[in-house]
């Protein structure tokens, strides 16, 4: 844990009437860290992400980014939407250039285009820059969404199940690319997923949420595998199945029957499956 | 398959038209000599009385006149005898004037209503009352306040084209996808840029569809309005030719009104297609 985390979520809660979707959320994200959030539907994952993005207001609690409380959306926190959210009347280049112009309104057109093209090429779509989103496959559209988010050179990326609408092969390729790009640019990332393997591949820390309503953070799993992992030989690493089993076990059993008697929301339990198997895996 | 369908449809259309023209021709041929009268008296009475000829002109007569109108569109022999081109031009200017004014009001107001649920709820009862009023019902009020018949016709066109455009704009703006607005929000896009570069293109197909409905209604209403205010315009032409008992010219005018209305609709349809985006 860093002393001054880049993102600090303090006692976040969202309530509708008398029911809390989630409550007492405390977690931090360090600079350059890749954090995944896993939980079943209805635990308010998207609401948490929207709160971090500044698109939605939480009912309680504060979020500090870079030491300052957030008060609405910001170009510093780019969002990659689940449904890519490209403007269908703009070409790929225009979609990205639209974002670039928002960040640097003083740039002239040529400079905007060049900057946008750089990021379109980064996601491997150099040849499709003049196409409209409707002419692209689902995976390509999501790449444009990623290029758009990266092009404004944000301080952090927020991803809401970005690959869930894609087929398995495309998803794999894109995960590799996101991993490569994020490590290259040392991006701070917060990502929602329901795919355990995706979380293990991408995340440094995996936040596990109990089922809603009244969802809380059950524990935070630290990925104990080396950072230069890749999808092809991930499963050969000795820690892989320990982490995976730990996560699956949580999603299947413990997310429902979470024991709150010894639970301190301010200090979510950190587990390191793989390193301290003897202590962690024997817990009920 | 599509081209053959189109071809077959064209064949059927042509056959229907030919059949209609033939029936029309036969029905207005006349029954031959019905009374043997003095030729001078016969000239006085016209073909209807002496040759059993129907007063309804036949297709050849109408089409001949149509050709004549096409070749003499812009002559001007005083207030009661102007080329049909001039009359159509008067009507078009009024329609486009009223329509243009309606665009200038409906688009900004539609944006306001579409973006503000408060304004939507507050203004809705007024629209519900004003929308079903026949535009011609405004005519006396317009004549009294504006005191100019031509401007009153434009006002009537303005009123009738306002509602479809206003309601469609408001609907289009209100139903812009939340995710596009969220993109604009996370990119900290200013309100004017958001309106022009996100909401306007997103709502453009709906807005232009409203304009297409409006121009259709405006073209329907202008004929009636000009019959009332008189002086110029294709509506006045129809009424004037009725007073002249020239059914041929009335039919010609009806055909012209249809053709111009179709052209206006096609222009807007093309514009709608231009701004429609595939998703």
Written overview of the protein:
Chain B: Its main location: membrane. Chain B: One of its GO terms (molecular function) is nitrate transmembrane transporter activity. Chain B: One of its GO terms (biological process) is monoatomic ion transport. Chain B: It is found in: Cell inner membrane; Cell membrane. Chain B: Probably part of an ABC transporter complex. Probably responsible for the translocation of the substrate across the membrane. The complex is a heterodimer of chains A (284) and B (279). Chain A is of the alpha/beta class and 284 residues long. Chain A has a domain at 1-33 and 42-72 and 205-239 and 251-283: 3-Layer(aba) Sandwich (Rossmann fold). Chain A is 33% helix and 22% strand. Chain A has helices at 45-53, 92-103, 109-122, 138-151, 168-185, 196-202, 240-254, 277-280; strands spanning 7-16, 19-29, 34-38, 60-65, 68-69, 77-80, 156-160, 188-193, 205-209, 217-222, 269-271. In chain A, the strands form 2 sheets. Chain A has a 7-stranded mixed beta sheet, sandwiched between helices. A 4-stranded antiparallel beta sheet of chain A has the order 2-1-4-5, covered by helices on one side. The radius of gyration of chain A is 19 Å and the shape is globular. Chain B is an all-alpha fold and 279 residues long. Chain B is built from 12 helices and no strands. Chain B is 78% helix and 0% strand. Chain B has a domain at 85-275: MetI-like (MetI-like fold), CATH 1.10.3720.10. The model of chain B has no long low-confidence stretch (mean pLDDT 91). In chain B, helix 8 (149-174) packs antiparallel against helix 10 and helix 10 runs parallel beside helix 11.
């Amino acid at each position: 844990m860093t002393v001054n985390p880049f993102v600090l979520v303090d006692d976040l809660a969202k309530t509708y009437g008398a029911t809390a979707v989630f409550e007492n959320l405390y977690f931090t994200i360090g600079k350059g860290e890749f954090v995944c959030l896993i939980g079943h539907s209805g635990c308010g994952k998207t609401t948490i992400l929207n709160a971090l993005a500044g698109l939605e207001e939480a009912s309680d609690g504060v979020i500090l980014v870079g030491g300052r409380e957030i008060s609405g959306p910001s170009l510093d926190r780019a969002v990659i939407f689940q449904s890519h959210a490209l403007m269908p009347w703009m070409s790929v280049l225009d979609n990205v250039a639209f974002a670039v112009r928002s960040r640097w309104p003083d740039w002239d057109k040529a400079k905007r285009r060049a900057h946008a093209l750089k990021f379109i090429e980064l996601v491997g779509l150099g040849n499709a820059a003049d196409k409209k989103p409707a002419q692209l496959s689902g995976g390509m559209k999501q790449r444009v969404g990623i290029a758009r988010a990266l092009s404004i050179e944000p301080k952090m990326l927020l991803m809401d199940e970005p690959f869930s609408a894609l087929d398995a092969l495309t998803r794999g390729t894109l995960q590799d690319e996101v991993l490569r790009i994020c490590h290259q640019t040392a991006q701070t990332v917060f990502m929602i997923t329901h795919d355990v393997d995706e979380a293990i591949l991408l995340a440094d820390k995996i936040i596990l949420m109990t089922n809603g309503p009244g969802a809380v953070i059950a524990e935070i799993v630290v990925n104990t595998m080396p950072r230069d992992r890749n999808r092809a030989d991930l499963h050969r690493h000795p820690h892989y199945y320990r982490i995976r089993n730990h996560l699956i076990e949580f999603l299947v059993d413990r997310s429902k029957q979470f024991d709150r008697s010894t639970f301190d929301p301010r200090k979510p339990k950190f587990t390191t499956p793989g390193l301290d198997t003897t202590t962690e895996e024997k817990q009920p | 398959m599509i081209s053959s369908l189109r071809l077959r449809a064209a064949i059927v259309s042509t056959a229907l038209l030919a059949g209609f023209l033939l029936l029309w021709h036969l029905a207005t041929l006349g029954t031959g000599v019905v009374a043997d009268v003095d030729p001078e008296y016969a000239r006085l009475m016209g073909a209807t009385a002496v040759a059993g000829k129907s007063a309804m002109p036949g297709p050849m007569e109408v089409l001949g006149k149509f050709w004549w109108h096409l070749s003499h569109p812009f002559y001007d022999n005083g207030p009661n005898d102007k080329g049909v081109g001039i009359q159509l031009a008067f009507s078009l200017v009024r329609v486009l004037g009223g329509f243009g004014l309606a665009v200038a009001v409906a688009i900004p107001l539609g944006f306001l209503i579409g973006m503000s649920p408060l304004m939507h709820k507050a203004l809705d009862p007024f629209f519900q009352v004003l929308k079903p009023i026949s535009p011609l019902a405004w005519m006396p009020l317009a004549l009294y306040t504006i005191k100019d018949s031509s401007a009153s016709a434009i006002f009537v066109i303005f009123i009738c084209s306002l509602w479809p455009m206003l309601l469609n704009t408001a609907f289009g703006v209100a139903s812009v996808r939340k995710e596009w607005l969220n993109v604009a929000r996370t990119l900290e896009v200013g309100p004017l840029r958001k309106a022009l570069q996100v909401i306007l293109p997103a709502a453009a197909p709906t807005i232009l569809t409203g304009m297409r409905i409006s121009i259709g209604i405006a073209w329907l209403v202008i004929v009636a309005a000009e019959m009332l205010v008189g002086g110029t315009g294709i509506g006045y032409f129809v009424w004037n030719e009725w007073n002249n008992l020239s059914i041929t010219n009335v039919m010609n005018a009806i055909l012209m009104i249809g053709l111009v209305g179709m052209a206006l609709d096609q222009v807007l349809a093309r514009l709608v297609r231009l701004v429609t985006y595939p998703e």
